[in-house]
Give the backbone structure.
Amino acid sequence: MVVAAILVALLVYSGVVPLLNRYPYQSLIPPDRVEALDCVLVSNPVKTGSGTFYRCTVELEEVRGVVENGAATARLHGGAGAVLATSQASGRATVFLPAAFVEAHYPGKLYSAVLGSSRSQSAVTGLVEQGARLSLKVRAASQSDAPGLHLAGGEPVFYGSDCHYNGFPPGWWGTVQRFRGLCRLQFKRLMYGWGDAGGLLVALLCGSGEYTDRAVGDAFRQAGLAHVLALSGMHLSFFAGLAAGLVRGTGRHFSRLFSLLAVVLFVWFAGLSPSLLRSLMGSLLGMAAGLWGIRCGMVRMLALCFFLHLMLAPHDLLQLSFQLSYLALAGILLAGPLFEPATHRFLPPAVASSVSASVGAQIFSTPVTLLSLGTMMPGGIVASVVVSPLVSVFMTVGVVAIILSLLWPPLGEPLGHLVNLLYTCVTIPVRLFAKIPILELS
């Protein structure tokens, strides 16, 4: 199975076997002539580095744009031959939504009051979360506008300018999606009162980086700790361990089922990213193997997750987060044990194991990082060993503080001071490790 996974990866990434787009664009109007569309969000909006837009994936329902009329190519406000057509559409597309539209109901985003201005042209706002239905005026993006986003299979990319919120689909599933969106919004409002510490908790527990201090976020990346902010197996392990600790003494099977419930609820709340999907599949397979008494090595488990991921979401293979997630775990499992004998000579056992795992992850992920980003963070090996335990303590105290604040709101302010103190303890070493020079390809 491991050999088969390696062969499949080589065939896919070498281009010998192209990936099939399961959600191809289909409409009577070509993507480059689409000027408006109706769609449903199928992913959480993610803020871009510039802060001007939010990137999201949408399921298309209807598009409007120009079509050819005889020998003339029509334009929206063209001459006598201009024809504006409406067509049903299917498939998925990447859309960049204006930040002011997405953040209209976010706490502290006061600049969103300009939604009615000519600059934003976004008149109708609402809960812009996964499952929401939107009507957008768009323009097709060129390769220069969005380099690297025109993936295999021809997924179109649009920039939205005039955005209208049309609510959630009717039925029970639309109600569930709206409830999830409201939970995420209320969580952001609660964390906003805790300042920068709350912003980091939003990133760690919700997968949203809107409130993370930009300097701190850059420091995490420069220190080689970007994986700490990306939702992955570390977060699932945290919630599984926290849930198991709450029901300790109730029996092994009940403890595992309760941990599984906690993991599924967290993934439902945070949303699926490639690294989180890989971690979820690994957790489900590991729990199932434990319940049924099946022994399976971690390397073979990782290969099985790769094949399941390939079947469930093949487009994820082209994303950098997918590649780094699998390579880092493969490095921990394969290369990490090779360094343990040497590290055990100089370090305590617990620290030696962490250093060995960090070295293995760095060795396997560095080639992809160099090819895609042209950089390497050598300080990430030590930084991960030092910062990861601090982040775990910060998350534990943060979750307990959130629960206590919800049970008795007057505790919110003093607990917020405690969480900010821990936030300082986390960010100080992160800023120090960020000062280690980054190696760049010339």
Observations:
- The longest strand covers residues 53-66.
